[in-house]
């Protein structure tokens, strides 16, 4: 149960972009929100739908979600499949949640500058003049630090073949669970993870030689029936 905040006139929004600095920004926001005893919200924006995220993006979402729960953050806001300019989305969220302070990482700022074709912070200042901004200097991750255990995800389906739940890569004529398969780099077999969406959250199961080894993690209502 979350503790009632006493300073509801203040509200902090942390904007995270994919990279190892997201956790640092969330913790920085949590520290400031604790000092001010005010609500904290975390926001990430992506133009792709959640169920098409690759292994790298899904990994960050999972870790951020776990950290948000650990710290008791008010809400982790994921705006996926978003076609509007990023600054418009941030402005909308800031107004909806009565945000007074926004934290942005310098590396995310640089990435979003590429997207907006201009100075991202200047765009935000113009779009959202009613908040204070904190630009946090963060270290860019090296290639060795990035999340690269899996190949790029491909569309796949889990079916029930009586004895096991197995993965196939063409849409079957039998009941199936649709998702994305991420194959482990360096293996000749269908080993990796299968990610799917359930109740607006990403879930995953482990695949070994094409077979789901932890099918108990698949909710009963998602399990495909026997052929």
The run of helices and strands is EHEHEHEHHEEEEEEE
Supply the number of helical segments: 5
Structural class given helices, strands, pairing? Answer: alpha/beta
Q: Give the class-level CATH name of the largest domain.
A: Alpha Beta
CATH homolog superfamily of the largest domain: HUPs
Shape: elongated
Residues in β-strands, percent: 25-35%
Query: Which fold name is given in CATH as the topology of the largest domain?
Result: Rossmann fold
Provide the CATH architecture of the largest domain: 3-Layer(aba) Sandwich
Radius of gyration based on Cα positions: 20 Å
Mean pLDDT: 83
In what order do the strands lie side by side in the largest sheet? 7-6-8-9-10-11
Q: Give me the count of strands.
A: 11
Structure description:
This protein has helices at 21-36, 55-71, 86-96, 106-116, 120-127, and strands at residues 12-15, 40-45, 75-79, 101-105, 132-136, 154-160, 165-168, 177-183, 192-198, 201-208, 211-212. It has 227 residues and is α/β, with parallel strands linked by helices. It is elongated, with a radius of gyration of 20 Å. This is Histidine kinase. Keywords: Kinase, Transferase. GO terms for molecular function: phosphorelay sensor kinase activity.
């Amino acid at each position: 149960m979350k503790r009632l905040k006493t300073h509801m006139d203040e509200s902090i929004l942390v904007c995270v972009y994919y990279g190892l600095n997201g956790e640092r920004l969330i913790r920085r926001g949590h520290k400031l929100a604790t000092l001010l005893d005010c609500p904290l919200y975390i926001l990430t924006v992506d133009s792709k739908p959640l169920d098409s995220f690759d292994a790298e993006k899904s990994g960050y979402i999972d870790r951020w979600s776990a950290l948000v729960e650990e710290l008791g953050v008010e809400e982790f806001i994921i705006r996926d499949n978003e076609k509007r300019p990023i600054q418009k989305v941030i402005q909308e969220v800031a107004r909806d949640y009565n945000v007074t302070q926004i934290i942005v990482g310098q590396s995310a700022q640089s990435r979003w500058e590429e997207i907006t074709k201009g100075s991202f912070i200047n765009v935000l200042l113009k779009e959202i003049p009613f908040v204070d901004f904190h630009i946090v200097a963060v270290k860019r991750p090296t290639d060795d630090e990035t999340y690269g255990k899996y190949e790029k995800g491909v569309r796949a389906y889990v079916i029930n073949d009586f004895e096991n739940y197995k993965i196939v890569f063409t849409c079957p004529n039998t009941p199936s669970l649709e998702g994305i398969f991420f194959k482990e780099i360096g293996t000749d077999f269908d080993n990796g993870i299968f990610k799917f969406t359930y109740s607006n959250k990403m879930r995953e199961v482990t695949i070994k030689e094409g077979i789901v080894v932890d099918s108990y993690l698949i909710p009963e209502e998602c399990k495909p029936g026997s052929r």
